[in-house]
Write a structure and sequence with these properties.
By secondary structure, this protein is mostly helical. The protein has a single domain, classed as Orthogonal Bundle (Helix Hairpins). The chain is built from 4 helices and no strands. The longest helix is centred in the N-terminal third of the chain and has 21 residues.
Length: 104
């Protein structure tokens, strides 16, 4: 698995540089702002990112959304990897697609 980024690694990385549990509301407001920026970029039909040019792309905004989502999880001391299979099992039951199994 060397060279692959996991959600747990990202949470730990974000926590090491930006962990302020008292800033839950600010993280949420930033997340909301980034979702709006993603909508704007998608509506504009932005080009795909390249290593030389990521500014104003869907790729850039998705990373920002993921960042603030995980910062919120850290603020609440939630290990997202623990809850992915639980929530996915619930979704599979709810939407009757139980034949599709989630295997981390």
């Amino acid at each position: 698995m060397e060279g692959q980024i996991t959600i747990r690694y990202l949470q730990e990385y974000i926590k090491s540089k930006d962990h302020h549990p008292e800033a839950k509301q600010e993280y949420f407001l930033k997340l909301s702002e980034e979702i709006g920026e993603l909508a704007r970029v998608m509506r504009r039909g932005a080009p795909k990112a390249t290593e030389a040019a990521i500014k104003g792309t869907v790729e850039e905004e998705l990373w920002d959304i993921l960042y603030y989502t995980l910062a919120i999880a850290n603020a609440y001391d939630i290990d997202i990897e623990t809850w992915i299979p639980v929530k996915e099992a619930m979704n599979n039951m709810k939407y009757n697609n139980g034949s599709v199994e989630f295997h981390p």
